[in-house]
Specification:
This protein is 41% helix and 15% strand. It has 278 residues and is α/β, with parallel strands linked by helices. Strands 3-2-1-4-5-6-7 form a seven-stranded parallel β-sheet, sandwiched between helices. The longest helix has 28 residues.
Length: 278
């Protein structure tokens, strides 16, 4: 990424911050956008402390002028825009659908769907002026399969997947590649705050029996923005420890026979039959 310019919207912490740092470590100049200017400044200091180049811009991704300004600042400061990661998200706390406040639902849709649309609208315009570029949008495994109590989040992430595919088709022959990542359980600050038991259960929900790390997501985004993925566009890339592949029951049983005791690793070598529950 040496000599290139990357933009990360939603870069104040977690996956966004890790991806901004990964871009910088690979040689890109990075423009960071988010509403939390103090958190952005901390990410910039980490990047500059390692010899990288970064600029922070306070940004509300759902606001037209704010999102246009983020892209304009990238071009004005560094002369071009080559890669972008639209990562910002927001919305209501988990609740059954009828308990969700309509204004909170609208906030989730505005940040996820409108924010991603505005990001791509201005990023693609800038990239076309310098001959092409790459965009990665942040969805979730929840955008591929429903999750109870997350109506706004699921709707928003599913919308991002749809927008990504349309943008990829619109600009596939103009040097712009657009892809979307769909992480499963990742050890971000939210899961860290939830504590060890939540982390353990999140890990058990994946066939790999662990949660992912923010750096693992960042490296996939970096690959999608690099020439190594030059024939990939419109793709949905799961980063979920195998969740989207199907189910991996912790133990199997044979039809008509009692289940054997569970092994120390939470699995059984018994073959055939139907998957038992946890």
């Amino acid at each position: 990424m040496a000599g290139r310019v990357a933009l990360v919207a939603g870069a104040s912490k977690g996956i966004g911050a890790a991806t901004a740092e990964a871009f910088a470590a690979s040689g890109a100049a990075v423009v960071l956008g988010a509403r939390d200017t103090e958190a952005l400044a901390s990410v910039v200091r980490r990047i500059e402390g390692r010899g990288g180049t970064a600029t922070a811009v306070r940004t509300d991704v759902a606001d037209v002028a704010s999102m246009r300004n983020l892209v304009d600042r990238a071009v004005a400061t560094y002369g071009r825009l080559d890669a972008a990661f639209n990562n910002a998200t927001d919305g209501p706390l988990p609740a059954p659908l009828v308990d969700i406040d309509p204004e909170e639902f609208d906030r989730g849709i505005a940040t996820n769907i409108r924010g991603t649309f505005l990001g791509m609208k201005f990023e693609i315009g800038a990239m076309l002026r310098n001959g092409g570029g790459t965009i990665v949008n942040m969805a979730s495994g929840a955008g591929l399969n429903g999750v109870a109590n997350l109506a706004a989040y699921v709707a928003g992430k599913a919308g991002i997947i749809g927008l990504t595919k349309v943008a990829a088709l619109d600009y596939a022959d103009q040097g712009i590649r657009v892809n979307v990542v769909a992480p499963g359980p990742i050890l971000t600050y939210h899961l860290e705050a939830a504590g060890p038991e939540a982390q353990r259960l999140a890990g058990l929900s994946t066939p790999m029996r662990r949660v992912g790390t923010v750096s693992e997501v960042a490296q996939v985004v970096l690959w999608l923005c690099s020439p190594l993925s030059s024939f990939v566009t419109g793709a949905v890339i799961p980063i979920d420890g195998g969740q989207s592949a199907g189910s991996k029951p912790p133990q199997m049983y044979r039809q008509g026979k009692p289940m054997s005791p569970q092994g120390p690793e939470g699995g059984s070598s018994a073959g055939g039959g139907t998957g038992g529950g946890p």
